[in-house]
Amino acid sequence: MSLPPSSRLRFTDDLTICRILNGMWQVSGAHGAIDPRRAVDEMFAYHDAGFTTWDLADHYGPAEDFIGNFRHLFAHRYGTRRLAEIQAFTKWVPHPGRMTRRIVEEAIGVSLSRMGVECLDLLQFHWWDYSDKSYLEALDHLADLQREGKIRHLALTNFDTERLRVITDHGIPIVSNQVQYSLVDRRPEGRMAVFCREHRITLLAYGTLLGGLLSEKYLGQPEPPRGELNTASLQKYKRMIDAWGGWALFQELLAALKQIADKHQVSIANVGIRYILDRPAVASAIVGARLGVAQHIADNARVFGFELDAEDHTMIGPVLAKSRDLMKSIGDCGDEYR
Ligand SMILES: NC(=O)c1ccc[n+]([C@@H]2O[C@H](COP(=O)([O-])OP(=O)(O)OC[C@H]3O[C@@H](n4cnc5c(N)ncnc54)[C@H](OP(=O)(O)O)[C@@H]3O)[C@@H](O)[C@H]2O)c1
């Protein structure tokens, strides 16, 4: 299987990526046990199918090591020249505190060494507390490391529009912001997407499948009790559904998506991802992969084989219109973490 050209996006001048990123939070341990050998083996299946871009973080358990091991085996199997086919986007989520050059450089050094690369393709920076302005100091040091060739591109995760403006005004070249974006959580449409388009910044969307809740598996099902939601992801997005409008409204959404999916002979997940990929400023959707436990490679490939039409949007619109405004109840992108 190989994905069509429409699956690829020129993300930056020097990086072309898959529009579905393989999310590696799912190997952190919070989504069930992962066997490292099986996991790394399965990374070949994703890559060989065309899903060549990985989203990870310093704190996603062994994720950075998996990239290192995968690259090692990949070079052995296919030769070092083909390593350029892999894109690995990591994050740095520092503990609050002073951001000296030494602290920043050490953290980046750890990621470089774990991932077995000389330069990080993309470093996505997270910050917990806006009242502590040291995030600008950290970004200044990261920009220095970028000039020194240790980071190819700088990006953010879970930053709101106001702080994105502060950072771009400060002169830091940001290429993307990774934010929660799904049919249920459409906060990026409030302010973020407009700002991003004006500043040539793209969005990497996570939570698009609501941890798997946005699928046939939950269509027509009674509201799952918390104890039945066995991954951190399912629990996180069930809370989001509750804030958005509750299980009954979510069932209405799933029913509408099912009709659309049947019409195009695809899955509910396919419709959910396609919807987000078509939104302004969105570069890619990140879909979590429980490597070696469950995979949806063939199904997710179908995202690139159909388009949503006006009739589909007319079916989805009225359901979304009944939901609560999460911008009002939670705030802008990332505010749920603060
Ligand atoms: N920056 C941040 O703060 C942040 C926060 C959360 C996530 N993320 C990133 O986003 C990634 C995605 O994580 P997420 O928590 O948002 O989860 P998600 O992508 O919404 O859901 C992932 C789950 O969806 C199910 N799935 C995938 N494809 C499917 C298909 N075609 N049909 C039916 N089910 C399907 C799988 O469940 P099963 O495994 O049960 O089959 C999978 O584990 C993470 O790995 C991480 O890289 C970033």
Question: What attributes characterize this protein structure?
Answer:
338 residues; 12 helices
The H/E string reads: EEEHEHEHEHEHEHEHHHEHHH
* Strand element count: 10
The end-to-end distance, rounded to whole angstroms, is: 42 Å
In what range is the share of β-strand residues?
A: 15-25%
- Sheet having the most strands: 8 strands, parallel, barrel
Radius of gyration: 19 Å
Q: Summarize the amount of helix as a percent range.
A: 40-55%
Poorly predicted regions: none
Provide structural commentary.
- The chain is an alpha/beta fold and 338 residues long.
- 41% of the residues lie in helices and 16% in strands.
- The protein contains twelve helices and ten strands.
- The protein has helices at 36-49, 63-78, 101-115, 134-147, 161-169, 192-198, 232-244, 247-264, 268-277, 297-301, 310-321, 326-329, and strands at 8-12, 15-18, 20-23, 53-55, 87-92, 120-125, 151-157, 174-180, 202-206, 282-288.
- Strands 3-4-5-6-7-8-9-10 form an eight-stranded parallel β-barrel, surrounded by five helices. A two-stranded antiparallel ribbon has the order 1-2.
- Helix 1 (36-49) crosses helix 2 (63-78) and helix 8 runs antiparallel to helix 11 (310-321).
- It is globular.
- The mean pLDDT is 98.
- The protein binds NADP nicotinamide-adenine-dinucleotide phosphate.
- Residues 23-26, 55, 157-158, 178, 206-212, 215, 233, 267, 269, 286-288, 290, 294, 296, 299-300 line the site of NADP nicotinamide-adenine-dinucleotide phosphate.
